Hints:
27% helix; Herpes Virus-1; Jelly Rolls; Transcription Termination Factor Rho, Rna-binding Domain, Chain A, Domain 1
Amino acid sequence: NMVMSFRVSDLQMLLGFVGRSKSGLKHELVTRALQLVQFDCSPEVFKKIKELYETRYAKKSSEPGQPQPQQHRSPDTLSIHSSYDRGSSVARTSISTTNIDYPALYGKYLNGLGRLPPKVVKPEVRLVKLPFYTTLDELLKPTELVPQNNEKLQESPCIFALTPRQVELIRNSRELQPGVKSVQVVLRICYTDTSSPQEDQYPPNIAVKVNHSYCSVPGYYPSNKPGVEPKRPCRPINLTHLMYLSAATNRITVTWGNYGKSYSVGLYLVRQMTSAELLQRLKTIGIKHPELCKALVKEKLRLDPDSEIATTGVRVSLICPLVKMRLSVPCRAETCAHLQCFDAVFYLQMNEKKPTWMCPVCDKPAPYDQLIIDGLLSKILTECEDADEIEYLVDGSWCPIRAEKERSCSPQCPILVLGSSDVNGLLPPPNSNGENGKATADVVDLTLDSSSSEEEEEEDEEEDDDDDGPQPKRRCSYEKGLVSAC
């Protein structure tokens, strides 16, 4: 009630005291102040609110020209809170003193005792960036869920209001599907850990109520292995369809299980992207020039004088390991050590449905911002339509690998060199290595792993295929039974 009665100057004073933004319209300031009361109402903050309230009404009750009672501090005196470390004895002393000689105090620090004590900046919880969500506004920065009692089931409320601009962004955004706007208000939850950006993580017994209705939360991925618990995909929870798209305040209540671990929640205005949009962005900014890719091939195949076995070439399949179809947009992570590519189209579609961002070739992280399109392999795909595999040679050139029957009819295996003046890039085979397919005799496939066949069998047993879309055979199957998130 005290906060609701504050004027703009009072609200700005309160928000400045805790280091929050003081800009915006009054209803935005009120929303921020209410969030402060709910999630961070320490004794100092409560004392500040009480001081502001008493100061305001003391001014109202006093007659013009009548001096203000000494116990009520002026706004200038109150602003000192944000300048000093509230934990230091000097700050406490100076704040409690009515008549402060600021120049003398400041000079004292400069002339003999060092600088003013720096304000302690508490590290904040950060959430990882999600490729399919572009953040437009932070409505509530990650705030810890604090238990109010010893009960296992806790409720944490949050009140906020949208600005007219935010409402218009939502209303004018396109629909991803009926009833689902691309611009959304989403709730994200993670562990309260400030050491690194956190992935979304739900607390036990989670339920989210928006105004008067409960919002559906993503369901569980069923597990086909006995004794293995089903996994829950922790994603942003879309609240938009249950909110008041007006100046009215919205109330969100998070119900959560208090079992020892600390969680933080944040509210964001986001634009949800599609796999097609991410593919287009990758095609615009993520293509690696063929010459750079060729230099990488030569580096991979550079002869090592200390090596007993000289690597003369490496085979690369033109078939996507995800869906066993010919590559259309050859892609891999910049951090991957292999030359083998997967298809960006299917990889993005797979992560849109079940985000894992793991390379299907080496099983190492392949996040979106590390993906590149291999310009050299893209060129090869257009020039080599009658083979499903090629071999890179030490000079950066390549040749197609065909079936043995087909190769026996064609004793010469031409080597295609990129950048040649010849239209087809055909050159006579070097020495005798190109005859009768001998060029491939000493090939070492650097992408093979001794355990890959066993892992593939385990993956096939573990996962089912989905009914829609391409039918991947490895690491891209989508489990049935997933409940959508709103």
